[in-house]
């Protein structure tokens, strides 16, 4: 409902908004063919009088071009634009979802390898001579060193007391946070073995 209300409101008010719908083919375990009979999402924008663009969501350059054009239209014409980026959800919907129960493993593998947007973009960059395996190896090695150095430096810092969790948002701490802080203190006192040395509350 929010989607339709949002599109209609933006169209009527001529709001310079760019809506981006990532159409990955699934809503948890429900395939798009079981969700609607129209030709994707792009037609829904047109039905509300909104300029709508469909783009290959796995092509970084195409997405960049579509978003850039949509933004230009929204700003110059002071009206909304809808982009439908056609893609695929390779991973599970969530940690409690096993997508292999409702789609074939080879289908997932195809999208993961053959239609991977990072691989597609990388191949284009390599074909233009702007990147190579050697460049990749160097940057990965340097990034790994920098990350390890940052971790080692961070581990030497004193840990902040846990009370910081409860004092960094509100000027006057609400009652529910006071209760949570007290509950945490009691838990730490009861089970100090579950917390690292030097742990402060």
UniProtKB/TrEMBL annotation:
Protein name as annotated: Dehydrogenase E1 component domain-containing protein
Keyword terms of this UniProt record: Oxidoreductase
Presence of keyword Cell membrane: no
Domain Dehydrogenase E1 component per the UniProt entry, residue ranges: 1-159
Source organism, top-level taxon: Eukaryota
Lineage: Eukaryota, Viridiplantae, Streptophyta, Embryophyta, Tracheophyta
CDD domains named in the record: TPP_E1_PDC_ADC_BCADC
Listed InterPro entries: Alpha-ketoacid_DH_E1_comp, DH_E1, THDP-binding
Keyword Oxidoreductase: yes
